[in-house]
Amino acid sequence: MGQEDASANLEPEQFRKMFIGGLTSSTSDETLKEFYSKWGQLVDCVVMRDPTTKRSRGFGFVSYSKQSEVDEAMANRPHIIDGKTVDPKRAVPREQSERSEATVSSKRLYVSGVREEHTEDMFKDHFSKYGNILKCEIIADKNTGKPRGFAFITFDDYDAVDKCVLIKSHMINNYRCDVKKALSKEEMAKAQQQERERLDRGGRSRGPPLRGGNGWGPGGGDRYGGPGWGSGPGGPGSYGGYGGYGGGYGAPSGGRWGGDGGGGWGGPPSQSGGWGAPGGGGSGGGWGHNGGQGGWGQGSHGGAQSWGGAGGAGGWGGRGY
Q: What percent of the chain has pLDDT over 90?
């Protein structure tokens, strides 16, 4: 009864859990626990293993009792375990980790829902609590000077972006703004390559299902996912089978991010209403929606960094950024 009461008082798990990639094959649960307990009280700790061979898959998870303890751990990077510098990140909920974008770290944040009432100072004030801001820019129409509905926030560390994305929707000056990672052309290519490798493996990246409870240890269909690089069967740059892991987190799958636009920055998957990648053609360096109905469109004509409405019904038109 007491343990149930304690669990009920904990902050949401997604804010307290970390993914630890790049572990050596010899790193044990106990080693992981001993290392990360220096920054707070651990609720759970596990090194993920192949269900058949029991060999380490090169990554694990730790869960603290408070989000502030995750913040403390991330503030004390680099982390060296068993002589190797590992890759700690905030664990990503399944609905987010099923996108290729989840596999890439970015120091730049994409903010949608920007209104005329918003100012760059408002965004600086709001997002500075997540990390040190290097640059804040509301993208405006070059003719009217009015906001085009989005902005970019550049931090000095990828962890600040990860924290913002976990929340996703932010209320700024009484308006809802959604956030996503902003990816460079190189980062988009990396995410696409990892997605292709996953698809080439025929969906085997998740590994055989494991049985177990909803806490640490093997889980059923609900899985945890982490950034796609390490020493798994998928080869360099990706983890192989994640296996099952309870709690509603998942391995990256579906929803390809990015596109072919020259010099552009890519957003999330180009689905109906989803954020798409820069399109081909004459424009370079632009952002846009390449999706279906209700989507923003990346311009494929005009000069460098031009904008165009490529969405379907209800899409935004216009060019000339």
A: 49
Report H helices in the chain: 2-8, 29-36, 67-75, 94-97, 120-127, 158-167, 185-200
Q: Which residue has the tokens 């690089």?
A: 229
Q: Is 22 left (phi over 0), alpha (psi -120 to 50) or beta?
A: left
Q: How far apart are CA 91 and CA 231, in angstroms?
A: 18
Note whether 36 and 65 are same-domain residues: yes
Residue 267's contacts (CB-CB under 8 Å, 6 or more residues apart) are: 110, 180, 182, 183, 257, 275, 276, 277, 287, 288, 289
216-238 pLDDT tens trace: 222 222 334 444 333 333 333 33
Any idea what DSSP says for residue 103?
Answer: G
Q: Are 36 and 62 in contact (CB under 8 A)?
A: yes
d(CA 187, CA 263): 11
CATH number at residue 84: 3.30.70.330
**Full-model pTM:** 0.65
Q: What are phi and psi of 108, to 5 degrees?
A: -115, 135
Amino acid occupying residue 125: D
CA dist 244 and 250 (Å) reads: 9
End-to-end CA distance of the chain: 60
Q: What single-letter DSSP state applies at residue 11?
A: P
Q: Which of 134, 124, 102 is nearest to 258 (CA)?
A: 102
Q: Which tokens is 240 given?
A: 């192989």
- For residue 5, the model assigns a pLDDT of 53
Residue 288 lies in a domain: no
Tell me how far apart the alpha carbons of residues 234 and 194 are, in angstroms, rounded to a whole number: 9
User: What does the pLDDT read at residue 195?
Assistant: 76
Q: Domain range spanning residue 162?
A: 101-186
